[in-house]
Design brief:
CATH class of the largest domain: Alpha Beta
CATH architecture of the largest domain: Alpha-Beta Barrel
Oligomer: single chain
Shape: globular
Distance between the termini: 36 Å
Strand content: 15-25%
Number of strands: 9
Helix content: 40-55%
Order of helices and strands: HHHHHHHHEEHEEEEHEEE
CATH topology of the largest domain: Multidrug-efflux Transporter 1 Regulator Bmrr, Chain A
CATH superfamily of the largest domain: Regulatory factor, effector binding domain
């Protein structure tokens, strides 16, 4: 990867880590060690938009997640966190990006328009992601774990609706991430199957089987056994690349074979509680000798 592209990945991560601060062009130029005379053009070339639009887009993304998944937060607090001086200014900007008012988006999130606006950043992340070393993979013995899951089936772009239902069940059962580990079971790759065939489970660790409920949450188990573990740090935008690294690079070079259980994730800390660049996801690949 070129040094210039590397600089702009660093700029993106710096912006994500400092969304709560005032970010001006002079400050970003100093961070990137680039001339302000060229910074605007280079930003537009790499991000597909001016830097001011990028900052606003990332703030609105976080706001969208907080509206959809953090109902305890007041809309005015989300607006202020996103850098807006008033509810009205936030509503105008949010509606421009999401074609929905913040209150309506909270009731019924629709991420389709967002995904189209976010594509330039997604592509940049995926093109620049680097896997550092095979030594980053560790072998661990995973203990059998009882989990409660909501089974998402169908279009991956509607995953947010399933996440919301699971969070509502979790809240009702007093099982926050701080008290119960969060897992995802990945049954297939959204890039390799049709939208209708996509399958993913959203779950958390529990001590006893799930009772019948209105959220379609059921009981499953992650079996005990050896796993190759790779720690992914950063946005979910490049999570698929880390998963593919385990399958395409690490596994063929190892002496292990796959067990009959899907690859799964443990969400150690996640967006929007932390900046996207600081999110931590442990990827578990079930293996055997």
């Amino acid at each position: 990867m070129s040094r210039i592209k590397e600089k702009f990945i660093e700029v993106l991560e710096y912006i994500e880590a400092n969304l709560d601060r005032d970010l001006d062009i002079h400050q970003l130029c100093q961070f990137a060690h680039l001339s302000k005379f060229h910074f605007h053009r280079q930003c537009s070339a790499y991000f597909g938009m001016p830097v001011a639009s990028l900052v606003r887009l990332l703030r609105l993304k976080r706001a969208g997640y907080q509206l959809a998944f953090r109902h305890e937060m007041k809309i005015i607090d989300i607006a202020l966190n996103a850098g807006f001086d008033s509810h009205e200014a936030f509503s105008r900007a949010f509606k421009k990006h999401f074609c929905s008012s913040p209150s309506n988006f909270r009731k019924s999130p629709d991420w389709n328009l967002w995904h189209r606006k976010y594509d330039p950043i997604l592509l940049l992340r995926q093109k620049s992601k680097r896997i550092e070393s095979v030594s980053a993979v560790e072998i661990t013995s995973f203990e059998e774990t009882l989990i409660a899951v909501h089974q998402h089936r169908g279009d991956p772009r509607k995953l947010g609706m399933s996440i919301k239902r699971f969070i509502d069940w979790r809240r009702e059962n007093n099982l926050p991430p701080s008290a119960s580990k969060t897992f995802n079971l990945l049954y297939n790759d959204p890039n390799l199957v049709s939208a209708d065939e996509y399958q993913l489970d959203i779950g958390c660790a529990i001590e006893s089987p799930v009772k019948e409920n209105a959220f379609d949450v059921v009981t499953k188990r992650i079996p005990a056994g050896d796993c190759a573990v790779f720690r992914h740090i950063g946005s979910d935008d490049t999570l698929g690349l880390s998963v593919n690294y385990l399958y395409a690079t690490w596994l063929p070079e190892s002496t292990y074979q796959l067990r009959d259980f899907p690859i799964f994730l443990e969400r150690v800390c996640f967006f929007p509680e932390v900046a996207e660049c600081d999110a931590i996801t442990d990827i578990y690949l079930p293996i055997t000798k």
